Amino acid sequence: MEGNLERLRERLLEARAAGKTNLAEVLKEMGISPDNPDILTQLLAQAGLDPAAIGDKGKLIQLITSLSQSLSPGIKENIANLYTHLVQEMGGELPEDLKDFLGEWKEK
Q: Can you tell which superkingdom this protein's organism belongs to (predicted)?
């Protein structure tokens, strides 16, 4: 399955309109899972982000910090909780350093 950011956006809107609340299920329907990193790479590139930055922890932290600067602590906490939940729903595990990073968002 090929990653298509616009189709993902449309599918998420359709799911919301239909009352679907299981985001992990919708993402899996679109082929997005920890087992399919190629689709994530395609989606990042379509969003204008450098997929190579994902493999470099330093660059990834800079990217996340840059994108999240203007977010309130409450929004960051919600994002951290959502991401943690999604990873669990998809059967994955968060690396320790990512757990620590998201934990900081939850504490502020």
A: Bacteria
Average pLDDT score over residue span 16-41: 84
Rounded Cα distance between 101 and 34, Å, is: 19
Q: Position of tokens 């320790």? A: 96
∠ Cα 54 58 61 (to 5°): 70
Q: Which of 49, 47, 7, 51 is nearest to 26 (CA)?
A: 7
Measured N-to-C along each axis, helices 96-107 and 73-89 cross at an angle, to the nearest 10 degrees, of 140
b (16+ CB within 10 A) / e for 51-72: eebeeeeeeeeebeeeeeeeee
Where exactly are the structural domains of the chain? 1-55, 71-108
Alpha-carbon distance 106 to 79, whole Å?
9
The model's pLDDT over 71-107, given as tens digits with 9 standing for 90+, comes to 999 999 998 998 888 888 888 888 888 888 888 888 8
